[in-house]
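Data availability excerpt. The first of two example chains:
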Amino acid sequence: MRIWQGSSPAFTFVFTMGIVNLFGDVTYEGGGSINGPFMATLGASAAVVSITAGAGEFLGYALRPFSGYLADKSGRYWLITFIGYGINLIAVPAMAVAGNWQVAALLVLAERVGRAIRKPTVEAMISYTTGELGKGWVYGLNTALDEVGATIGPLMIAAVLFWNGSYQLGYLLLLIPALLAFLSLAVARAGFPVPSKLEQGQTASAGDFSPAFWGYMIAGAFFAAGLMSFELISYHFDRTHVVTGQWIPVFLAISTGCGVLVSLAFGKLFDRFGLPVLLVAVLLSATFSPFVFFGGFGTALVGIVLWGIGYATQDTLLKALVATVLPEGRRNLAFGLFYGGYGIGWLIGSVVTGLLYERSILALVIFAIAAQLASLPMFVLASRLQR
């Protein structure tokens, strides 16, 4: 397999959609780097911040089966993609005019709803290239470009804060990458109106939803329950002064910057070794919480890098894993259902960690570690069912 598919239409499509996601991640990861502290300035508590983030992630996953089903039935995957990106991206700069935490919370939810609408269609369209390029490499490359954007966005916000700019100014500046994302998406639509023509071989081998598919979904839900949102992490940093305000976006940028390398490496390794790569990644991710919540600046930095490995895992390896059990003709729905289950786990984890934060940090850390470690035997069992 060629590492750089410069003459390949499949690679061109994956790379173009990666550029869309790059600008998209600049927008909403830039906003996400300050959502927690910004909501705190509007009077939101730790529980409100965590539960809002958790509810947003839940909606961002739970609505995916519906958008995936609609895409499979209607065939209007590009239209659905444009609608999703529209809601997803515009909600971020709109935070600049939020006058209270309730409005800010609604915009956080809206951003995640838009993501839910467009995610299954994007993942399904990209899946047509996996026969030529490899499942791990395709989703690893796409995630790596995501993470480049997710690194640039927080650094933009950090620069604003270092120059004593306001949170509102930071949100307004994110309108620029939002518009660039729309432009890139239009280029992708013009160049590849029917992505299914890129398919080589049979990239969706399952006849229907198998026991392995449902097993992977349950395992993913446990993994999600222990991952937690950056909104809660940034709230903790701001509240305890372990990491000062302008450094919080930099921490997110460092995490996502490491995620670029992790996504590319894990993606290639997954194509060669399969499930063991995912298991190692989960083990690394499970250790992030004690570093984040106990200790000082340096310890927190180690924790945020490990947390970034967790995010790279869910964005690269879980997608590659699902791609091995996709049912033909229902791949939009399959991605939607998988991440719907993932979202249920995320919501439960966010509610639990948000409530535990005010009562016992130790209990919060134990819960986060236990939830992610519990996913390991479930992934193994589902893999055996697949074989």
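And the second chain:
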Amino acid sequence: MKILFLGDVMGRAGRRAVSERLKKLREEWRLDFVVVNAENATSGAGLTAAHAKAILEAGADVITLGDHAFDQREMLTFCEQEKRIIRPLNFAKGAPGSGARIFKDARGRQILVTQVLGNVFMKRAFDDPFSAVDQVLRANPLGGNAQAILVDVHCEATSEKMALGRWCDGRASVVVGTHTHVPTGDAMILGKGTAYLTDAGMCGDYNSVIGMEAEEPMRRFVTGMVKGRFTPANGEATLSGLYVETDDRTGLATRVEMVRIGGRLQDARP
């Protein structure tokens, strides 16, 4: 199975890059399944129903969220209606929507998509991500009812992402990090066969401070004072993510490549 994961879509620039490029990539790379993290797609904070629909129409099969999952209040109800949206597995027991679900590609192969939030350096303590994802993986053994499994680990700390990657090694096809908006260079296949990347980066304008116009973040760092709101940068965006090929029999990864297309980062693609 050929899988593409795209990192955090950041504001209008990120949405524009996905809308303009994703369908062409699906055709050129003959992709079987595409997962897009879009928790920052609406003004850099959350996701509206309209923007979710646009990303799905652009070629995403599934959208994952994150700690900003419900910053846009309409997502509280929309994620119940639109089953292709996955919120964090360990967000809260009473949270709407689902943190894990099995989908099918065009050939009928089943892929499980799930997401967990980290605890280290996050603004609030979430339920234990290790036990949360363990429960899902035990109930859905790789190569059984799921030909592939993708785990989005939405964490601040690189060490926590790495630990979760190894916790899932051999039990998931792909473990890919999101949240920091900064792409890492450590794409690899772990010892037991899971494709791994600490952070996929963002689909957004990198002439910025993690996707925001630089003036206000810099003012806060330099002076410690708040003057205005953060505003998403709106220059040419880079599509950042991870490309993975898996074996249909075992579900394990056979190839992994970082993806960087357009914008200011040096291109990297399969």
